[in-house]
TrEMBL record:
One of its GO terms (cellular component) is plasma membrane. It comes from Adlercreutzia mucosicola. Residues 360-593 form the ABC transporter domain. SUPFAM superfamilies: ABC transporter transmembrane region (SSF90123), P-loop containing nucleoside triphosphate hydrolases (SSF52540). Gene3D superfamilies: ABC transporter type 1, transmembrane domain, P-loop containing nucleotide triphosphate hydrolases. GO terms for molecular function: ABC-type oligopeptide transporter activity; ATP binding; ATP hydrolysis activity. It is found in: Cell membrane. This is ATP-binding cassette domain-containing protein. It is a multi-pass membrane protein.
Amino acid sequence: MSSTTDDILRESYAEVSARRVWARFIGYYGPYKGLFFADLACACVLAAIDLAFPQFLNFFTKEFFLETPERILGGLGLILLLFLGLYAVRTACQFFITCWGHIMGAYMEADMRRDLFAQFQRLSFSYYDRHNTGAMMAKVTSDLFDISELAHHGPENLFICTLKIIGSFALLFMINVPLTAIMLVATIVMAALSFALNYRRRTVFRENRERMAGINATVQDSLGGIRVVKSFGGEAAEREKFRNANEAFLDTKKRSYRFLGAFHAMNSLFMGVLYTVTVVGGGYFVAQGTLAVTDLAIYALYIGIFISPVEQLINFTETLQKGYAGFRRFMEVLDEHPDVANRPGAASLAEADPAERGHVEYRDVQFAYDADPVLRGLSLDIPAGATVALVGPSGGGKTTTCSLLPRFYDVNGGAVLIDGVDVRDVTLESLRGAIGIVQQDVYLFAGTVRDNIAYGRPGATDAEIVEAARCANALSFIEALPQGFDTRVGERGARLSGGQKQRIAIARVFLRDPRILILDEATSALDNESERAIQASLDELSRGRTTLIIAHRLSTIRSAQLIAVVEGGRVVEQGTHDELLTANGTYARYYRMQFGE
Ligand code: ADP
Ligand code: MG
């Protein structure tokens, strides 16, 4: 688990140029241009109002407040109207930025999530072999959140903060140049210190997140294997493992809070320094006669206006960095090319002559998942409609052989042909539509029994679904369920027995009506009785279809027209049961070992 997280983190440092990342990121604003510019406009108005406030105060002080009481009272009406108006506008802008700015971020996040999910559907098996999907999904979900934060706060923060800081300094310079110069230097020094501190805090924070992932992994592993834990009395050891993860997390958490404390203290110091400079420096210039007392007050107000944007910008570097890193990881997943895809100009698998439908040929097939070759020149010819039993030692390559037919993986050498056509030359949709697979593990989707059977052919009528269930010997038990076909199955079909789930899976394939069938240890996980019941429906299913069957039951193997012994990535022997026994080779040896004399 944790190694997977590391892999994902490490992968994020692949070469992607920053320019490409930003271009792609900005592309996601495309559909929301209106919102984006409205958001920026509101940000400008908001910053302008905040900057104007001390100016108005300055103006009114000179115009009214330093005059007679009558003049002051006479001006209050105007001041009231103006301020109410300004703050009404400011409030509206604030609402728009917070509400619609966030909604824009959420839209963009939804678009990215849509693209990501589509990409997950597109990626090939080999990708899933290399990545832990659970960890990936969680990682990318948190990435997407970081990205949407950046999407929203990016333009707004950068705009408001920059405008306020630049605006304040410009106005301060207009009031008094030497004092503002000192102020500028103090600001730069303090901001740099603050930034450095925040940077350290972020490093600790990242460590923090990794250790949290460690805790999650420990919990998941331990709860996932709770049956093993309990049956081996491993509770104390599990607690100990968890204690370590928990303490490691607490440790970095404490460190991160030390930095957080220091960061906030630094900001307080920052403010203190600026106000001290204002008062002492200001006093000095007042004494010199170069600064009016009213201007000094205005000066103090502007300090309040630019101090928080400076802090916000420092904090924003974190949002920026997290959002950027998240988007880059997102992009890498999106840029991953599926290993198996339609060739340009691929046509549908042709409807061959009915008598010839489903002729399967493996021609000198070479295949490796990674470095080690698994299939080394495997050849096998299966006539249309025939049943071939693949037998051989575990790990010999039987499942792999079957996986190449629907192109779960592509061969590295040689070819796999259906009805004389290379499987790589036809569309994946038509190819997979022609092949039905029943495996040992059945996956049932959350939904009703009907939905699960209908997955075999979306749009099938109720009558067809019932007929498929009947063929699969599933009708009687489905009808006995509380809501019949409308009974919901748990997320993994928890409320059905293995044999029942298997029969639903078989009904699914009946409904699909493929010309080729792959039965990979379909009955291995079942007890003898369910196995016999299901064998009957499998026999029914394979009638008239080319069938590749991997099984351990002698009767199943024996009744196949062709038995192929797969060992070391080759077909080392093939023929009928009797022929192979007579030949007295590998199969005969295997047979004697498995089933006695
Ligand atoms: P069989 O079905 O005959 O037991 P498999 O085809 O499942 O054999 O496996 C053949 C070899 O390929 C084994 O050495 C196995 O470890 C390896 N293998 C199977 N699936 C994968 C995979 N997804 N990734 C890497 N290696 C695999
Ligand atoms: Mg296998």
